[in-house]
Design brief:
Distance between the termini: 45 Å
Shape: globular
Radius of gyration: 14 Å
Strand order of the largest sheet: 3-4-5-2-1-6
Low-confidence stretches: none
Number of strands: 6
Order of helices and strands: HEEHEEEHHE
Strand content: 25-35%
Number of helices: 4
């Protein structure tokens, strides 16, 4: 018996993406809400930074695992794994951008979508 994927709304999907990023200690996580923008390509962009190409890959895989575990969905499209500077995971309604820090500054997506509602996700602090 084949199990069909569970389709989440974009709000819940964006939350799952953030959780996957946090699992691998992504930094500077922001969620751009593009829903109210005319001609937006998605409902959300979720952006974070990684400090190394190893962490970059680990964050992207964690996001994929978190979303797949909860919904059965895989990204519609994935780009940048070979380049190892910026990985894009396209879930259609939610587009995930995992950058190395210097690449993120270079592309400045937050500025490009300056009319979007931006939510800054606070870094989780370890409790001892």
């Amino acid at each position: 018996m084949k199990i069909s994927p569970v389709r989440l709304d974009s709000d819940n999907l964006a939350d799952l993406v953030v959780r996957g990023m946090q699992e691998k200690k992504a930094v500077d996580i922001v969620v751009l809400n593009l829903k109210h923008l005319k001609n937006a390509v998605a409902d959300y962009f979720v952006i974070c930074s990684a400090s190394s190409d190893t962490q970059l890959d680990a964050i992207a895989r964690s996001v994929e695992e978190e979303v797949e575990k909860a919904t059965g969905q895989n990204p519609w499209q994935s780009e940048g794994r070979l380049n190892r500077e910026w990985i894009l995971l396209d879930y259609v309604d939610v587009v995930v951008h995992v950058f190395l820090r210097d690449r993120r500054q270079f592309y400045a997506l937050e500025e490009l979508w300056g009319d979007a509602e931006i939510s800054y996700i606070e870094e989780e602090t370890a409790v001892k």
